[in-house]
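Intended use. Records like the one below are meant for learning the mapping from a protein sequence to its folded structure. Do not use them to infer anything beyond what is encoded.
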Amino acid sequence: MKIDIVHEYDISNELSANIQELLNDSFPEIYPKNRIYFKQLPHFRFLAFDQENRLIGHAGLDYRVMNVNGKPLRILGVIDLCVAGNTRSQGVGSRLLLEIDAFTEGRNIDFILLFADKMNLYVKNGYQPVNNVCKWLKINVETHTTKGIGTEHIDGLMIKKAGIANWDEGELDLLGYLF
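Structure written out for the chain above:
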């Protein structure tokens, strides 16, 4: 298996079609059928390929400042991590997470953050659930329009420390959309 880092603006039409197929197969009930992002384009992606150069894993990544109780933190957000159905439970997801960990080393990143439906993979890879009230920009995924500001506790919020800052419970202002 090889993992490539691909910036969003470098994705070819062929690769885009492969990413869309993987995302639609992985999130069949909710993912838009006509694009490779849910609410907003990630900054870049980690893509896993098998020996025949078929796309088998995906993780979108978004780098931005978020605010925890008035303290700005540099966050690398993991978006839509998924693995092709025929290669699940073979370590592809863990390998993507390890590559993301390695990517953060020596960089100005305080935490890796994600929202998980199932936490087992992430706990196994050093992530911890946190209990924060989240505030974010609400986006209508069909019309690409701003709907307002959301504020609520969201189950599945997980972090992994990547720098020296500490995480606090309380309000997490994503200063942007919820991925």
